[in-house]
Design a protein that fits this description.
Length: 155
């Protein structure tokens, strides 16, 4: 699985664009720039929901596409639901870790709103709260649920 992707160059008058996979891979690449925030550990990134994963992790949980959503059929809107997952030794420490990761993650994702040229714009729209998780190894985790809105010309 590729760790980075590049946009397909757009030709004048041509609506060729990028694949959704390129958008998701570039989103994960941007998230992984938040490494070792205040001693909390390196973020592992996944552009798919893995069967098992180490925490802390940034995971693209799912996405939806509104085709021809803006600019007179010229741009598609991709809404991506992402999870920022941390270990949950206790609720308090996990919430504290997420309250450190989430603002840094938002800043990292919005630092290059074009996702290395793959999108016209990107915005972290919301964080809808924390959710408890268990993994296949029965480790307890807590995740912040983020919504990211991306406008791009999709192929």
């Amino acid at each position: 699985r590729p760790t980075t992707a590049t946009a397909v160059p757009e030709v004048a008058g041509d609506r060729r664009g990028v694949s959704v996979d390129t958008i998701l891979v570039n989103l994960v690449t941007a998230a992984k720039t938040v490494n070792e925030v205040r001693g909390l550990g390196k973020i592992r990134g996944f552009d798919y929901y893995p069967d098992s994963f180490p925490a802390p992790a940034f995971i693209v949980a799912n996405h939806s596409i509104d085709f021809d959503a803006a600019f007179g059929r010229g741009t598609d809107k991709v809404t991506v639901t992402c999870l920022m997952v941390v270990q949950r030794a206790s609720e308090r420490t996990a919430r504290k870790a997420l309250s450190t990761y989430v603002p840094a993650l938002k800043a990292a994702l919005e630092a290059d709103r074009t996702l290395a040229g793959a999108a016209q714009t990107l915005r972290v729209v919301s964080m809808s709260g924390y959710q408890a998780m268990t993994s296949d190894t029965t480790e307890f985790r807590l995740a912040a649920v983020l919504s990211v809105e991306i406008h791009a010309n999709l192929t």
